[in-house]
# Entry
Amino acid sequence: MEPIAAFLHYLKFERRYSSHTLEAYRSDLLQFESFLHEEGLDRETALAEADAGLVRAWLMKLMESGITARSVNRKITALKAFYKLSVQNGRLNQNPMLKVVSPKVPKRLPEYVEASKLDQLLDNVEFGDDYDGVLTKLILELFYGTGMRRAELIGLKLSDWEAGTQQLRVTGKRNKQRIVPVFPNLAQLLQQYMSFRVQIKTQSENLLLRSDGSALYPEWVYRLVKKHLNIVSTQKKRSPHVLRHSFATEMLNNGADLNAIKEVLGHANLSATQVYTHNSFEKLRSTYTKAHPRGTRKD
# Structure
């Protein structure tokens, strides 16, 4: 098995990486291999012969074409993982990534919609009492009420909903599962949806289905969320992930423990959750400035 195929096989079956990540890594590695071929290296041995200078030349070419430092770093991550494993298992003899430094990436705060606006959307907008209306509201409430990712929502199974304990079992990245508590209003909405769901003639084990019995898919969910966030938000990003950010930010603003938020979101480490403290600090700064007796003073 050639090095790239062996690497992807390992990530898929040993590390349980998502199909999205696998495709991204495959694309990055093939793109780098193509660059090496353009530089005169034989396609069969290019990856083995590449040195740090060629890696830097490729990265420079990418950045000059307008690719952001964040995207470049993702490609570096793919290359580092590939070469580290390939050297460990003896498929390659050298690791050029040991001498490659990742470019600095400016911190990007998560975008979120204020709680008052989401309350306006979920409490005041008429979704309808039919299947489509209940499903639409349920999807929005699940994102904002649990902080789950889009792929996690689409992947929910009937067996994941425990009505008795009002809990959802969510399967996240690398098939890691977590239990998320469901508040009473959302639990009631889930039960209302289930009364429609049992009427659909289908063998699907998916919890959430469209009214014709077909499965949800990423683009459909994205369009649905964006359409409804357009009602209350004018910010550039209006996606399922914005609702995830909104959930985490509001939980933190209301005093939730950072480790508890980490567990609910399914983050692998606390540093991924700590980014939300910046949003909370900016809110605190704004409130403090407005309330402080000398906060708005102009010289």
Q: What stands out?
A: The chain has 13 helices and three strands.
